[in-house]
Amino acid sequence: MAAAAALRALRARLAGPRGAGARFSSAGFPEEKPQFPGASAEFVDRLEFIQPNVISGIPVYRVMDRQGQILRESEDPQLPKELVLKLYRTMTLLNTMDRILYESQRQGRISFYMTNYGEEGTHVGSAAALDDTDLVFGQYREAGVLMYRGYPLDLFMAQCYGNSRDPGKGRQMPVHYGCRQRHFVTISSPLATQIPQAVGAAYAIKRADANRAVVCYFGEGAASEGDAHAGFNFAATLECPIVFFCRNNGYAISTPTAEQYRGDGIAARGPGYGLLSIRVDGNDVFAVYKVTREARRRAVAENRPVLIEAMTYRIGHHSTSDDSSAYRSVDEVNYWDKQDHPISRLRHYMLRRGWWDDEQEKGWRKSSRRMVLESFSAAERLPKPAPQLLFSDVYRELPPHLRRQRGALQQHLRRYGQHYPLELFDTGGDPQNPGPEPPQI
């Protein structure tokens, strides 16, 4: 029956509307329409290739200039003072935490770190635009989203130290945060794996009619992975309520965008997949807020995926394993740090409104540094998770082969414990003691 209905529909399309006269080509032949199921188009009789530069670059939406001046009053989101102060304090607190943890890695106190310098506006502006229950899939440079949602400094530090308070029990690299209660899926290192996972979650939310959105963050480098293609295509064809948030910060580790792609960035790819797409100034926290808020509204109300490309700049090194002076100049970095930083732009706005002054700045910088250092010091004193926790969280009930392995580890530690720094682990002085469970935050 379905085949017959499809055939009738095709015949109707070929016949055209009732009463309509036949249309003829310039050569006098009846005009034909393409009936291919894979595209909507017209026939042409002139051979022409589509040039990649047929359209000028997608414009970058912004609300305020680099001096914090609103460009058009009708575009001002009119955020209340309390919210603007929260945006600013979250960005500066993240910046302070970055500086302290980066230096601590250089001192050998933690094993690894990745800063967020220059990209704070993309985190905080987008986080403020989401509902608290929206599900977030991050990459590894979105700590500000979690911080805005209230994730405590103590747990940021616990994760980077991998101590007994770490909800991940020390199993992840530093900066691989996660929090079920704050709807933030645990970060994984492989690039772009979160994109198809996020689409699957969005499809499940759609099926459940849950009135929520999924927001998936990634960089322009991750957009070159095959998982990005699969995720974009599935999201469009399944009509999922998801916002793809791409931070285009100019570099995929050491590879500049000029060597990553030849098209007009990432937003230009969206229409080809059927994604509603927009490009925004990622250093303008108000523009990021407005774009994300509207994208989130459309994703939920219309069950459609939206692609946001936030143009920004990675001021810091890719990670503590990277020296970016090998592939970019100090002058380039200084330009973005001094001339177009999201924190300074918002500060200019607050100064114009009379909501902030030098004394408040000085006091906040001092108190935020003290908060970070106190959490840092507390995390450093805590022991590592008990060795026996290696075997937990895989199965609800520990299977025989893991029970045997756990027993073998206990025997090994009883016999050779003097060769291991067990005093650094939370065993209560007993190698057989698994220690307390970390908090489920």
Polypeptide structure, described:
With 441 residues, the chain is of the alpha/beta class. It folds into 2 domains: 73-381, 3-Layer(aba) Sandwich (Rossmann fold); 387-418. It contains 14 helices and 8 strands. It has helices at 2-15, 81-106, 120-129, 143-148, 153-161, 194-208, 226-237, 257-260, 270-273, 285-302, 330-339, 342-353, 358-381, 400-416, and strands at 135-137, 184-185, 214-219, 242-248, 251-252, 255-256, 276-281, 306-311. The protein has a 6-stranded parallel β-sheet with strand order 2-1-3-4-8-7, sandwiched between helices. A two-stranded antiparallel ribbon has the order 5-6. The model has no long low-confidence stretch (mean pLDDT 92).
Number of separate helices: 14
Structural class: alpha/beta
Distance between the termini: 54 Å
Q: Which stretches are poorly predicted, pLDDT < 50 over at least 5 residues? A: none
Q: Kindly report the average pLDDT value.
A: 92
Approximate strand percentage: 5-15%
